[in-house]
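thread: overnight batch results

M.L. [08:02]
morning all. the overnight job finished for the chain we discussed friday. pasting input first so we're all looking at the same thing
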Amino acid sequence: MIKEQLLESRLCSAFTLAEVLVTLGIIGVVASLTMPGLMGNYQKKANITAMKKAYSVLNQAYMNIVREQGIDAVSMCPTNDSKCLGDMFKSELKLINSELWVPNGGGVANCWVDSTITNAGEQHYCTVSADGIVYDFDMEWQRTADRINAYICIDTNGPKRPNKFGKDRFTFVIINTSITPYKSYDLTVENYPSCKDGDGGMYDNLGCAYKYLYNDN
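M.L. [08:03]
and the structure it wrote out:
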């Protein structure tokens, strides 16, 4: 009698197959809703970490260049001579591949695929470092106080997607013998950096490096 009661109790407390399947289905739905967000947050943090590393490397490289060649090192490169600027960094950044490209042309395969940079008359110099980070050099002007002399854009995971500013692409500038994260065209105004965390177009996100370095992430 006691054995029969114990058996009956176990049968009553056990889950039926239908209940197990329903539970697994609910778990699957919850996972499908939360996993993309978790993966997105992980990738964002990974890209920001890579950006911070690249910024540190860039800063150290430029400090070495200025120490060896003087504060007017950038002025050795003529206006719009992006290759000259990139070659200046070549040994410091351990750049292994490089190629000139013109905006509006779609970029460079396996380096910088782009249809968003549309500045007519410019030449960019795309380079790939040994650790896979892409550096895109854009020489603007010879050294002038309080004026952007050059832009350096990076892609933290090379030619892999998403290839979007604010996600895996970030912008820095050379100004007053230092490299700083891009913030605004008007350097005299303390405005909030342009960054929509990758949403929108290129110009909506050129200030994301500044935001992630100094404000939040």
